[in-house]
Amino acid sequence: CLTFPNQRRDMDHFYYTSKFYGPTDSPDKDLWVNIEQMDMGRVHGILSNTHRQTLRVNLSFDVPFYGHSLREIHVATGGFIYTGDVIHKMLTATQYIAPLMANFDLSISQNSTVIYCDNGTALVVQWDRVYLQDVSHVGSFTFQAALYKDGRITFAYKEVPIDISKIKSVNHPVKVGLSDAFVVLHKIEQLPNVRRRTIYEYHRVELLKSKISNVTAVEMLPLPTCLQFSSCETCVTAQIGFNCSWCSRLQRYTLGSLVVYNYNNITHISLLSHHQTHQHTLIHKKSFYQHPH
């Protein structure tokens, strides 16, 4: 929950610990980045004049996310960053970094922009003076997400004209937080050359929407994960809160019914049995987000 100097406390989300900061906190806790003064800041023309659109951004450094590394992300007009490798229409379902996922339409105002900057140690994305399509009369929103080389993630809010817990999600999901998942390919007996992709969401960080307002910020610090261990000794002596064991055949840590391993420099997560995850099957879905080439 959002508390102020003498009451602030951390929230443990298993993979991350989050801290909320308010307008009365000390200046050194100001997480807002003045992106306009950064030489490498870029305003993207397509995103700054459209609705439900994404932009692929190649990073100059590795961003740790849930223990694995990101080198490419997709920035969406809807106030979030998509982190998955498989591009599909339902990007709002999972695999996201969302300072404020909502139905923002940047074509409403010529002043609405999406700005991003990669300085080699951090990627900052700013949704600047953006309006909700359904209730544009409430005013504009300005907020940021920053991804750091050490795995830290921050959300900062400059202008939030309404209580975001009251934003309706009829036409677009409304989320604040993180989500990660893995993809499983299924064979279809009737169509031997076709594979069905199913995304399994294994964890989600849901931050309280009611705690987000003007001049607030959230800092999420990564906790140790299985992927950082590459030997049996470091695995069995680690005390990181996971119910894991070492798999000698794969030479990797295993997390319950999930196996995490590396083959040909590609990280794979295999589902060995039923697991408590959210399932998103990517077939016969309504078109949602567009991806310019």
Automatic annotation (TrEMBL):
Protein name: Plexin domain-containing protein 2-like
Domain of life: Eukaryota
Organism per entry: Sinocyclocheilus rhinocerous
Pfam families given in the database record: PSI (PF01437)
Membrane topology summary: Single-pass type I membrane protein
Localization: Membrane
GO cellular component terms, semicolon-separated: membrane
Keyword line: Glycoprotein, Membrane, Signal, Transmembrane, Transmembrane helix
Family designation: Belongs to the plexin family.
